[in-house]
Write a structure and sequence with these properties.
heterodimer, A: 113 residues, mainly beta, six-stranded mixed beta sheet, four-stranded antiparallel beta sheet, 0% helix, B: 114 residues, seven-stranded mixed beta sheet
Chain lengths: 113, 114
C-alpha cells in the first residue's frame, strides 16, 4: 500500500451508523486478505479475513467484500460503536515460499457519540 | 491465555549502538513474523520464520538487521550500528501454522535512536 505519512485518511461516523472502509491492494497474486484494527499503543488486532476464492465474508457486525477484478477490499461495520474508534488496516498475503503480508496505509475511524 | 509478548516495551539507544529486541510468541505457534511500524504508517514486513528457519527475509532493510529463532519459539531481532532512521515500533506476530492464517500481534517495542 502507499504510505500517506502522518496524515491517515479519516472517516468520521455517528454512533449507530454503518461504516465502510475501503482499501486498494497491489498484488494480483495475493490470495489471502485480512482486516486489522489498531488502537493507540497496541499491536494490530485481527478482525476478519477472506480468501481469494470468496467475494464476501461476514462476522459479528463486520463484513468484508473482495473485488479481485479491480483489486479492492472493503470493511463494513454495522451499528458503529465508540469502541470501534481506531485505525483500520487492510493487509494482503501471498506465498513467497514463506507467507509475506503487506499492510496498507490505514484509515482512522472516529465514532461520534 | 498468554498472548505474544515483546521486551523491552521501550528502548532508547545512541546512534551506532547494537540492540536486541525479543519476541515470545504464543506457545505452539510455529510461524513468527517481525514488522516495523513508523508513525502514521502501516506495519512493514521484515521477516517471517517457519519453525527455526527464516522462510522469507526479503523485508530486512539492510545487513545491519538480523533475526534468529534458534529453538523455534522465542525470536530476537538484532540491529547493528543503529541509525536515527531505525526509530520505529517493532512488532512481532505469531500464527498457529504457516500460511494464510490469523496473526496475533504483540504490543511492540518502541525503539528510539538518539
Amino acid at each position: 500500500g502507499e504510505s500517506v505519512g502522518l496524515h491517515l485518511p479519516t472517516l468520521s461516523v455517528q454512533e449507530g451508523d454503518n461504516s465502510i472502509i475501503n482499501c486498494a491492494y497491489s498484488n494480483s497474486a495475493s490470495d489471502y486478505f485480512i482486516w486489522y484494527k489498531q488502537e493507540s499503543g497496541k499491536g494490530p488486532q485481527f478482525i476478519i479475513d477472506i480468501r481469494s476464492n470468496m467475494d464476501k465474508r461476514q462476522g459479528q457486525r463486520v463484513t468484508v467484500l473482495l473485488n479481485k477484478t479491480v483489486k479492492h477490499l472493503s470493511l463494513q461495520i454495522a451499528a458503529t460503536q465508540p469502541g470501534d474508534s481506531a485505525v483500520y488496516f487492510c493487509a494482503e498475503s501471498f506465498n513467497t515460499g514463506g507467507f509475506k503480508t503487506i499492510f496498507g496505509a490505514g484509515t482512522r475511524l472516529f465514532v461520534k457519540a | 491465555g498468554a498472548g505474544v509478548s515483546q521486551t523491552p516495551s521501550n528502548k532508547v539507544t545512541e546512534k551506532g549502538k547494537y540492540v536486541e529486541l525479543r519476541c515470545d510468541p504464543i506457545s505452539g505457534h510455529t510461524a513468527l513474523y517481525w514488522y516495523r511500524q513508523s508513525l502514521g504508517q502501516g506495519p512493514e514486513f521484515l521477516i517471517y520464520f517457519q519453525g527455526t528457519g527464516a522462510a522469507d527475509d526479503s523485508g530486512l532493510p539492510n545487513d545491519r538487521f538480523f533475526a534468529v529463532r534458534p529453538e523455534g519459539s522465542v525470536s530476537t531481532l538484532k540491529i547493528q550500528r543503529t541509525e536515527r532512521g531505525d526509530s520505529a515500533v517493532y512488532l512481532c506476530a505469531s500464527s498457529l501454522k504457516p500460511g494464510p492464517y490469523e496473526q496475533y500481534f504483540g504490543p511492540g517495542t518502541r525503539l528510539t535512536v538518539t
